[in-house]
Amino acid sequence: MSKPIPITTPLRELKGHEHCIMAAAVFPDKRLVTGSHDKTVRLWDLETGVALKKMELHRGGVSRLAVSQDEQLIASGDLNGEVMIWHGETGELLSQPIKAHTEWVSSLDFSPDGTVLATCSNDGMTKLWSTKTWSELQGRPIKCGGGTGCVRYSPSGEFIAIATSSIDIYNSGTRELVASFKGHKSHNFSLVWTADGTRLLTGGDGVDPTIREWDTTTWQQVGDPWTGHSNYINVMVINPAGTLVASVSPHEGHVRLWRVSDRRTVAIFKHSSGPEWVAFSVDGIMTARIACIDGDLSLAEELLTQDISTDGNNHTSYAHRSFVMARKHDWDHAVQDAITSISIQPSLIGFISKGIALCGKGHIRDARAAFDVASMYTDQDSEIVHFLLLIKAITLFNAGKHDEASLLLKELAAGCPNADTRACRIVEAYLRVQLEKALDGARHAEAADHFTSAVNSSNSSPKLNIHEIYEDLVVLFGWDLKCLWLTTHQKRCNALLQAGEFQDAVKLYRYMVDSSNKNTMVDYLDWSNGKSTFREECNTLCIANGDVALAASEYDRAIDLYSAAIALGSASDVVFANRSKAMLGKMLWEDAVLDAQKVTELNPSSHVGYQLTHTALRGAERYDEAIEAFTIMLSKLDDAPEAQIRSLRQQYVCPSQAEDAIRRAVWIELENAPLRLLNTSTGLLCDRAAQLNSFKMSPVYNELIAFPTKDSNLRTERIKDVVATYFRCVLLSHRWEETEVLLHDIQDKVVYELNGLGGIAKLQSFCKIVRDAGYNWAWMDTCCIDKKSNITELQESINSMFVWYRNSALTIVYLSDVPPSSQPGALAGSVWNERGWTFQELVAPQVVIFYQKDWSLYLGDRSPNHKESPAIMKELEDATGIDARALVNFSPGMRGAREKLQWASKRVTTLQEDVAYSLFGIFGITLPVIYGEKKQNALGRLLQEIVARSGDITVLDWIGQPSEFNSCLPAHITSYTTPPCALSSLSEDDIHTQLSSLRKNLDVELALELYDRLDYTSAARFANCRLHLPCIAFRVTEVSLSYGPSQETRYKVKADGLRDLLITTKELNIHSRTRPIKQTFLLVRPWDRSLLELPDFANLLDDTESEGDYRTPPFSTSVDSPSHSPVKQDGVDLESRALRLLVRLGQPFGAFLLARQRGGEYKRVASDRNIIAQVKDVSSVQDLMDIKTVEIL
Hints:
With 1193 residues, the chain is α+β, with helices and mostly antiparallel strands.
């Protein structure tokens, strides 16, 4: 029904090709050239349908054709990328096949002067060829990317338009790119220029199956897209007059014909199979149709007469002129043209024109016969039959046969359930109104019911333009459906209002407003603004019911009602404010802004409009404007004359206060973040200032500023949450490789735009993963620290790195040596586990995710934290020797220092000093970073700090070479690889047995004196690389050589109060078997306060009953300090502890061999094995009384 019947019925079918026709072009002399998948090109006579020439030299299916404007050349391109040139008259081949492209030819076009042929292909190339030599023109081909769809010269020949993923416009002479724009959402398939070159039309693909119109002076889109197609638009052509456009979508199975003036579809040509191409012939039928629609019947007659003069056997033109004569009530000529059409060729359109003309002359019976015969030419197509019967009913009605026409319509609607019943209702409504025009309008409501029902029977929008949908009725009978619509619905509005159905009345009223044109608007205004009270009554009812709906949070209904009241033109600022509130409830931010601005316009002194504007702008994320509106709102509240309004000001915090709170939160958040960070959105490296600026430019910052509340706690928590979320940072842990990216490589550059090789590729992949995970900031140690020119930054970075990893939102571990799809166990074998810096990068973060060499997840584990994966943590435990619980819950600091050193002992670093520097964070230590100081000094400073701060002497328990820094410290961290000396401990039964013996054989006072002296012994400390070590000293009396089975150098050592022992060392230079020792050496037991068995201080505070039983000795550097007065204790308990101490001192212990130096200091003699010593007789307390603090170099 949406197309004229003659256009949808083929005038002629040309048969001869063996496969589908993929291209076609029409000559003005009514010849047609076609190209087919059967590899042939054919010339046809359009009038007779006879094939004039068959050209068969293509080796692939012919995909595209072009004809030069002088009609002398035909170019054909095929699926193999070859192009052939044929003579336009004879069809003879003019050149050898041209291998133009590597893939199929997707488009061809001759320049307007015929000197150049443009070809493009799916290989992404557009090439220009001379039509004189058929060689490619000098200059580089135009590279357009894959999937080039179409190339077209502008009418002047100045430009070449190329459709790919974008629309590119080139100067045809220089091949310089003049303009480039996106065009359609996904891909651009087809192009056509208007005849004057002022517009370019483009056709899209299945994602955006529209036609878009572009101004060729600005390359901006003109108007809305032309909609109607549902799949890609393969080809578009424009008729010679420039008034019509035809477009093809093969998957839809039809061709659309568009009117350029209003961009509307005027016809649809249906095909039995998907059409690939379309071309215009030179005729006047369609132009005459448009003239009929516009009411210019004289022009229509003139155009059709010209067609008849050109071709006296064109039966279609005679039939169309018969329709025009019938419109002009020239019935005799109408009958004559109809008879002539049928005499030339009997057809559906001919008998329809005869039936209409005979009815006009009053020959009803003959007219019926003509319509009956017409039904023989419908091919039993139900749509065509349905339309034919509608035409018959209208024709009978116009001839005065009203009852017969009405009966036919009813039977047609009832008997054709699959037909267009809406068409029946519209025709019935029109005829009913025509019949009742002279009456008092009593049946207008009934007619309106029919018309409304007709509109609602469609799934289309209620604003559907009936006049254009049923355009055929306008062409054949000159109907003015718009005037009919207004007439019936004015009555309908009044009826609905009187029935109390005011919402339906308003909807109908608005529909009338939208659909009125200039001619009918005058009548509409006379009706709505006249003596009737329609607008006033509707306005009152809409506002009242809108208020009720708003209060009930029925926002859609409220919006409809307020909108209806506003459409009536009598709304106040209150109505706009309420509709804005309803819009806010629906989160229609932009619409709410417009209404809020209308409120301020109508009532500028009120704060309400600005309050609504602020809320809507916040929702729309237009924060700068929201803050401005909020500030004005505060001023309106301050200046309000009513005290009650002014009091509302106390509810809000001004933006400056919010800025202060945000600034404090940001500095707190960044305190534990790296100094430089990579912005994953921009790809730029940002220092602190740039980070802050990025935050201030972000929507979340402005949203915080624009967030009004008087609840300071709520605002503070919200600010903390937003700031913490924004500044979440992801850190990378990786093994440095040969081509790492450094700071100067990315400074002031966009990371994503760099050449992606080596370290750059690693950095880019890292940043993309972080960005895709929703994080704004990333950090990579190779390029985010100024290691060369800023020593202070390097110092701070190394000392803060553990804290940075601990506070990261996520740490990504990149395993460059773990290939994709690795099996379990690959992580354990990675070199990453052996590097010094990766120790803290493993234990510090709370959340860790491991990635393989290709940046895929290790083991495909998509859990948010691999530290929660038992399988992965078991691998790491096996690889590092660190208990999985310690890996997950690691605490930095001095506790368990010896064990932490053992965990680090097998790790290596590129720079020797980094062995120590990489452990600063592990122990919570901050020390100067001095590259060039050498490994022993760096490690010595670290160990010195551990002892100095904790007094923990377990770090002195090692085997290996002594350090130049201090002989009690190892030269290499590998000395901690051997676990600390573990000696067997006594059971409680053994201790009780020995306690009983001591009580019988020992003076308890001596035990108490020893306990007291050891209790007041100070902890070990360092000063100027010298270790002050509290210990129990045993004078060595004899050292002699003693060779073992493996010929290793061992020494037999005797000392006062100790059993003889053997020491393996290379540091003693003693050549005699026996040599007396006179205070040259000491064997010492480093003092360990845990032997006192004192309660833990933290537990002591919880035990109020025994709080006074313990004392905290003052710091002392010497056991020769004045005697102290012990706090009163339970004598039995202290005695027991003293005796237990003696029992423990009698057990084997790890001893240090010290050699006295000339200045009275000592040096530790390193041993290849632990030195295990034991007192001879624990009851000889005097042997244990040599308690001193020795100074060790």
